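Hi everyone, sorry if this is the wrong subforum. Our group has a chain we'd like a structural model of before ordering constructs, and none of us has done structure prediction before. Sequence below.
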Amino acid sequence: MGSDGYQRMKKFYEESDIGHQLAAPLKEGTRAVVEFVGDQQLYGMEKVKGRTVLTPGKPEKAEIYFKFSEGSIDYLFNPPADDAADYINRLCDCLLEKDPNKKVELKLLTSVVDGWRKGYIAMMMLGGPRAVSTIAKIGIKIPARFLRTEKSEHEENEKI
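Answer:
Right subforum, don't worry. Here is the predicted structure as tokens:
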């Protein structure tokens, strides 16, 4: 697959509306390591000025690691996703996939609390309950308090 996966993912995240929707919950400066099967180069994915940017080279202090197979890239981008929820659910399919040619590997390189603070859980929640269930199935346990979408009265009062 080589750099083809990188080019397709770069275009998706940097140019598509869905790519921008996926980046919205993430905090500025979040970083992921991205690897593509068959490509010796590691890549960095970082939120910069409100957008996800992909660049060659492993980023320092990455919070997430992804490894994409050729089949996963085809499944994620051909045909293009309908919306952010569709993309997240396709990603979930790949995370649970048994066939190594269609699998995506994901590792949390930080604590769940840090992942929550940086917006990764909110990004996955764009896929709804299925995405949260998938994360648990791959071994990342998310405390229920992180899954609440409505702000409590206490949180609202803290803003005042």
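For your construct planning: Residues 41 and 124 are 26 Å apart (CA to CA). The first helix runs from residue 3 to 15.
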